[in-house]
Amino acid sequence: MTSEPLPLRERKKARTRAALSHAAWSMMLNQGLDAVTPESVAATAEVSARTFRSYFTSIEEAILDELIQRYLTIADQVSARPAGEPIRDSLMQVLPTAIAEILGERDDIAVLVQAVEDSPGILAQTLVMFERGRQRLAEVIAARTGTDLARNPAPRLLAGAATTALSTSTMMWATRATELSLPDLIRACLQHLYAGIPMTADTLVG
């Protein structure tokens, strides 16, 4: 079953929001965090500063919004894997390639990592991204394994561990602490995770 298309007004609002976030992200990369203001972002997106403030409560929220929306699609990709596939195999198939496509260029993420260190607001929004992704992934894991999310901690534990693998890999890759590609680094982190936390059908069904 296909979902109904959004009304024209909602599509326009989504495009405006995406344009503002893209402008804010690009300005941070090219001009530095201090150059990103509601007025400068609005001018780049060809809207008013008032329009900017109707979509975002802060510059930091605007900068990370587009990346967060892409990051949240990871859970959807896991959900779309074949129904009989073990959940840890689904994660191994999806996470390495998905996160590499979502993050894009290494130098861009290095700028983000530096901004996280310099700006509490950027740090907060990055934590929001990983937390929202973890929650959505836990819901997908529970649904795919027939697990009661309210009573069994296993989906949240696995989602949290997978999210930590993603954040750890991203940090190491962005700071050039490894020569591995980002997908290979994520695979290595997941392999370490699986070796330390054996996942069988019994551990994921309550």
Description:
The chain has helices spanning 8-31, 38-45, 49-55, 59-71, 73-79, 87-103, 106-118, 120-145, 154-174, 182-196, 201-204. With 206 residues, the chain is an all-alpha fold. The chain has two domains: 8-62, Arc Repressor Mutant, subunit A; 72-204, Tetracycline Repressor, domain 2. The relative contact order is 0.11.
How many H/I helices?
11
Q: Tell me, what's the shape?
A: globular
Mean pLDDT across all amino acids? 91
Order of helices and strands: HHHHHHHHHHH
Radius of gyration: 19 Å
Architecture (CATH level 2) name of the largest domain: Orthogonal Bundle
Portion in strands = under 5%
Main pleated sheet: none
Give the domain tally.
2
What structural class should be given to the helix and strand makeup? mainly alpha
What is the CATH topology descriptor of the largest domain?
Tetracycline Repressor, domain 2
What's the N-to-C terminus distance? Answer: 30 Å
CATH class of the largest domain: Mainly Alpha
| Range of helix content | over 70%
The count of DSSP E runs of length 2 or more, i.e. the number of strands, is 0
Low-confidence stretches: 201-206
CATH H-level homologous superfamily name of the largest domain: Tetracycline Repressor, domain 2
